[in-house]
Amino acid sequence: MKGKRVELLFEQQTAVLKIFVEVNFENSNPIKEKSKELISKNNVENLIIDLSSVPYLDSSGIGFVLSIFKFMRDKKGKLILLNPNDKVKRVLEVTKIDTIIKIFYEKEKAVEELS
Amino acid sequence: MNRIKILKDEIKEKDKNIIDLEENIKKKFKKARDVHQRMLPKKLPDTGDIIISTYYRPAEYIGGDYYNVMEIDHESMSPFFDQYLVYYFDVSGHGIDSTLLSIFINDTIESFLKLRHNPGEMISPKELMNYIDNAYQEEGFPDDYLVCIFLGLLDLNKNRLNYCSTGFQYPIFKIDAGKKVEKIKTGGLPVSSALAFVDKTLEEKEMIIDKNSMILLTTDGLLEQEINGKSYFEEIDKILNSYSSYPAPLMKDIIYADFYNFSAESMIKDDLTFLILNRMENKRKEWNSARSDLSNRTILEEVLNFMEESCENQKNSSFDKLKNIVKSILLKENNFTVLQTINIKAYNNPEYLIFSFEDKKNNLNWKQAAGNSFDEFIKIKNEFVRNDFEFRNNKVYISYNNFYNKIYFFIPKLKSN
Q1: Residue of B144, B185, B193 lying closest to A94 (CB–CB)
Q2: Nearest Cα to B135, choosing from B114, B106, B176, B175?
Q3: Which of B327, B284, B283 is nearest to B303 (CA)?
Q4: Average pLDDT, integer, range B182-187
Q5: What are phi and psi of B306, to 5 degrees?
Q6: Which of B60, B143, B271 to mutate to test the interface with A (most CBs of A within 10 A)?
Q7: Does A85 touch chain B (CB under 8 A)?
Q8: CA-based nearest distance B97→chain A, Å
Q9: What are phi and psi of B148, to 5 degrees?
Q10: How far is residue B414's CA from residue B313's CA, in Å, rounded to a whole number?
Q11: Strands B352-359, A102-104: pairing kind
């Protein structure tokens, strides 16, 4: 698979994990491993996952989000999801992920929440 | 020169080893697929006025999907109950690991029924879901996996389905003949080790299964398939609305034919598993063949009379052919000589008649046993699929279940002018 799938950026010292592709059965494992590696290497305490470039999450994609959620929780850190499109938002609502992970639609507010 | 030849030979040898290894892995996966297929129930209960049809196909050699429908054993109180546990689940991934987890989930359900259920007591799908979740968390499986589960208690004395579900993104479809398909939300947090500390509030819901209605239950694979940005979820309504009056076995054939048309040459990305529960207009009529030809002749006469009475004025070659087949089966002619315990069920709906045949003792594979006896029906069925599922000349349509050990003949009735 060519092209960037995941990148860790910093917004006012808050870590933002940007995902650039649909997360599905075929790629969820490498994306998860890469994400965990970036989080560990950069000693990230709180994290925003930017979903604005993710067209869709299947059940493996949900598995990815939950795995990062547990990873951050084990580190006593917080996790926020940012800007899912309507399709991804529907998935997060139907599976009630939105009841355990906060979703924001404005980056500034998400950063403020974690500051 | 010699050095090049040696290197070429080495490469050739290594290529051969790789091919052998690939073959070996394929063989092992094929064996694993056979084991997985054998885990699926070969027979599903059909009782009263309910027909259940299922479809299963793993995305790769094996998968993490599973389904079952089993009668709840109330021991000495069984005559007062007519209850079934309907369940299906989807473990993320399509490998041996997913299959092993699906065996764990299935074993957990069976152990609940053995250890926690007392005859005469109502099973709560919500309680069972909590039991599965607790057992899963106790095992501490890696958080790489998640499980979506649907558990339903089908009570045929009340025509009611009580259910609880976790993780599925797509709804249940309720299809009432002649009405617009209704989508009923399921969803909920999936079973996952990542959620061990989350206090889950499960909901149990209830649905009435009316006469002449169907419930389509499916894992996400069918509906998630996407072609050019359009998912099959956005497409399926068309056929569910158009053929809402067709019975479950035919609806199953229509859904998978339509799905493969939709997918065209694209790879099927996920396991496909769906169940259709169909309540008929009328209760069934049933015959069980006897060992003696004399008794079977009496049954044959009854079945043929029933066919004639139910489909008055039906005169066409495929109807006559079906009558001949019933005769061959009951009198153990042609390829049906092994039949000893043939069970025949008939459902007489206003628009059609359905016959099902099953050899309860020998678990006969009808496709194999029939030889070329069913060729005419297969031809009609192929035309039916090619012609957008429209009936032609009121012919007889054939359908098999997943394991070919049950066969259905579907006879649309001629409309009188």
Answers
A1: B185
A2: B106
A3: B327
A4: 93
A5: -60, -40
A6: B143
A7: no
A8: 14
A9: -105, 130
A10: 7
A11: unpaired
The values of phi and psi at residue B207, to 5°, are -140, 135
Q: Is the pLDDT of residue B63 over 90?
A: no
Question: Residue B394: pLDDT above 70?
Answer: no
């309504």: which residue's tokens? B237
What would the two tokens of residue A49 be? 């996952």
Q: Please give, rounded to a whole number of angstroms, the shortest distance from the CA of B278 to a CA of chain A.
A: 26
Of B90, B143, B270, the CB nearest to A66: B143
Task: Note the ipTM here.
Answer: 0.89
Q: Stretch B387-408: mean pLDDT, rounded? A: 83
Convert the pLDDT of each residue in B188-233 to its tens digit.
999 999 999 888 889 999 999 999 999 999 999 999 998 988 999 9
The model's pLDDT over B8-58, given as tens digits with 9 standing for 90+, comes to 889 999 999 999 898 888 888 777 777 777 788 888 887 888 999 999 988
What was the pLDDT predicted at B4? Answer: 87
Say how far apart CA B150 and CA B135 lie, in whole Å: 16
B128: phi then psi, degrees, rounded to nearest 5: -65, -40
Cα three-residue angle B90-B99-A34, rounded to 5 degrees? 75
Taking the Cβ of residue A10 and every Cβ of chain B, the question of whether any pair is shorter than 8 Å is answered with: no
Q: Name the strand (E) or helix (H) holding A18.
A: strand A14-19
d(CA B199, CA B183): 28
Vertex B402: Cα angle to B396 and B403 (nearest 5): 100
Whole-number percent of chain B with pLDDT over 70:
94
Residue bearing tokens 């598993």: B273
Residue B274 to chain A, least CA–CA distance (Å): 17
**Segment B124-136 mean pLDDT:** 96
Name the residue with higher pLDDT: B317 or B223.
B223
Strand partners, B221: none
Q: Which residues of B touch A91 (CB under 8 A)?
A: 169
In chain A, which residue's Cα lies nearest the Cα of B93? A25
Q: What is the pLDDT of residue B199?
A: 84
Q: Check if the beta carbon of residue B110 is closer than 8 Å to that of residue B93.
A: no
Give yes or no for B194 touching A (CB within 8 A).
yes
The pTM assigned to this predicted structure is: 0.90
Task: Output the pLDDT for position B417.
Answer: 46
Instruction: Give the distance from residue B63's alpha carbon to the nearest chain A alpha carbon, in angstroms.
Output: 12
The amino acid present at A28, given as its one-letter code, is: S
CA atoms within 13 A on the CB side of B210: 9
**Which of A87-101, B242-256, B293-307, B325-339 is least confident?**
B325-339
Cross-chain Cβ contact B92/A96 below 8 Å: no
A100 and B148 within 8 Å at the Cβ level: the answer is: no
Cβ(B203)–Cβ(B164) under 8 Å?
yes
* SS3 at position B249: helix
CB-nearest partner of B169 from A69, A73, A94: A94
Residue with tokens 């169907």: B214
Which chain B residues are closer than 8 Å to A84 by Cβ? none
